[in-house]
Amino acid sequence: MKHLLLLSLWTTVGTLAAQAAEPAPRDRLERGRYLVNTSGCADCHTPMKMGPRGPEPDAMRSLSGHPEGLVMPPVPTLPVGPWLVISSATNTAWAGPWGVSFTANLTPDPETGLGRWSEQNFVQTLRKGRHMGAGRPLLPPMPAAFGQMTDADLSAIFTYLKTVPPVRNRVPVPLPPGTR
Fold it and tell me: Where is the stretch described as Disordered (predicted)?
């Protein structure tokens, strides 16, 4: 009996210690909001639209990636010289030596965004630089630096992204080099 009581006490202490090491859910959410807003996620994952003062983020499509209805024309030929990439006016399609990449839908839409992803899928994608941690490579302009973030920060980002309004927006698959 004494052994069971000690085992129960030890388990309770271990559980409380683990919970103390984890940030509270609200703290994790706020940390995620902070990281998304200061790390430039919306700079590429929120389409730009023309406003009265020039390009501005389309608030109705926040973090939804490249607009599915925007079919891109053939990629212009870069001039000879040190030029490397071409970006769309929406800042959601990028062309370079890797082909054409389209920024992903980071909203929690279950069909076209992160809605069915697990936290592990998300962390492994950023950690390994591959879709779902094992699929196709993440392409430029996605910074590899996100893979260097702590698990706690990646978890916080995922926690926050699950709370943004879902936007149904199926982003095209990347196009290989030479595709026009």
Answer: 45-68
pLDDT > 90? residue 2: no
Asked if residue 176 is part of any domain, the answer here is: no
Provide the domain limits for residue 118: 24-69+84-161
150-162 average pLDDT score: 97
In a domain, 37, yes or no: yes
pLDDT confidence of residue 133: 87
Assigned domain for 167 exists: no
| pLDDT the model gives residue 21 | 46
| 154 found inside a domain | yes
Global pTM reads 0.83
Is pLDDT at 34 greater than 80 in this prediction? yes
CA 160 to chain CA centroid, nearest Å: 11
